[in-house]
UniProtKB/TrEMBL annotation:
Residues 87-293 form the Endonuclease/exonuclease/phosphatase domain. The chain crosses the membrane at residues 26-45, 52-72. Keywords: Membrane, Transmembrane, Transmembrane helix. GO terms for molecular function: catalytic activity. The lineage of its organism: Bacteria, Bacillati, Actinomycetota, Actinomycetes, Micrococcales. Signal peptide: none annotated. This is Endonuclease/exonuclease/phosphatase domain-containing protein.
């Protein structure tokens, strides 16, 4: 029985490096849990003094242990008066508590807010609770169901392009104009890696990666939103290559944003802020009633152009 369990855990760990579709991304989402199981299995077989199985268990446990330790290393800068706070919230079909959304943005002194699954009725409710006073500038648009993706900001914003995702959510491409300098913002909401649409999910990540590659290397850049992907998935890691993942920069370890408000505790980070041309100050999550995602925010320091 232990041998069978060890084989299953080993396969679960190895899947992290398999860039595939079908059910693979769903298994990858559980990598932190599988990694803890790998460590627990090693401790168990070591205690039972099963030498051969213990060696196998050690080999399986090493990758998640190393990844776990490196995720605790921080590379941040001190807070400053002109930091840029970016927050992303998936509103779950417009069901999120609008008062709490606005309050969270106010409490964190958010400069730019990315909202996914923002319906017209949800936007009206947000405006009734003071969104226009807090974040008066908008790009992108609300839409029915999961199709609405928009950005609200304290800064002037200019829509560069509205990248279509077919029957899925749009992805506004925006120029944000600040007193410290401009930056390009891509609001992200990819399809979920469910079996019937996992090909669309993978295509969306590839499209984002290709878009990133087309931009000049010195272009300040932020990608924020619901990526429906974690660092355990090769497609996400390819997209994040050359960018700063805020949660990794802060050494947050096992950062989690989904699910929220259910019997199952959060176990995976689907919501991210990636950047280039910024240093990271801090990051964190905020609970919002009515949505299955935690809000995720990152405080960034714009770096001077060389």
């Amino acid at each position: 029985m232990l041998v069978v369990l060890q084989v299953l855990i080993g396969l679960g760990v190895a899947v992290r490096w398999l860039d595939a579709t079908w059910q693979v991304p769903i298994v990858q989402a559980f990598f932190p849990v599988i990694g803890m199981a790998a460590v627990a299995m090693f401790v168990l077989v070591a205690a039972l003094r099963y030498r051969v199985l213990g060696l196998c268990a050690l080999l399986v446990a090493v990758p998640p242990l190393v990844l776990g330790m490196t995720s605790l290393h921080s590379d941040t800068v001190a807070a400053g008066p002109h930091d840029e706070v970016v927050m992303t919230i998936n509103l779950e079909y417009g069901h999120a508590d609008p008062a709490r959304v606005v309050a969270a943005a106010r409490e964190r002194r958010v400069d730019t807010l990315v909202l996914e699954e923002c319906t017209p009725s949800e936007l009206r409710a947000l405006r009734r609770h003071g969104l226009d006073d807090l974040l008066p500038h908008q790009a992108g648009s609300a839409g029915p169901g999961l199709t609405g993706t928009l950005v609200r900001s304290t800064h002037r914003v200019r829509l560069v392009a509205e990248h279509s995702a077919g029957r899925f959510a749009g992805s506004p491409d925006i120029q944000v104009v600040t007193a410290q300098g401009d930056y390009r913002l891509r609001a992200v909401h990819t399809p979920a890696p469910l079996p019937d649409i996992v090909g669309d999910w993978r295509s969306a990540l590839r499209s984002l990666t290709a878009w990133r590659d087309r931009l000049p290397d010195d272009q300040r850049l932020v990608l924020a939103g619901d990526f429906n992907a974690s660092s355990a998935m090769p497609g996400y890691r390819k997209l994040a290559d050359g960018l700063t993942d805020s949660s990794r920069a802060t050494g947050s370890g096992w950062q989690r944003t989904w699910p929220h408000g259910t019997w199952l505790p959060p176990f995976v980070q689907l919501d991210h802020v990636l950047s280039r041309g910024f240093a990271v100050v801090a990051d964190g999550t905020v609970p919002i009633a009515g949505t299955d995602h935690l809000g995720y925010w990152a405080r960034l320091r714009m770096q001077r152009a060389e």
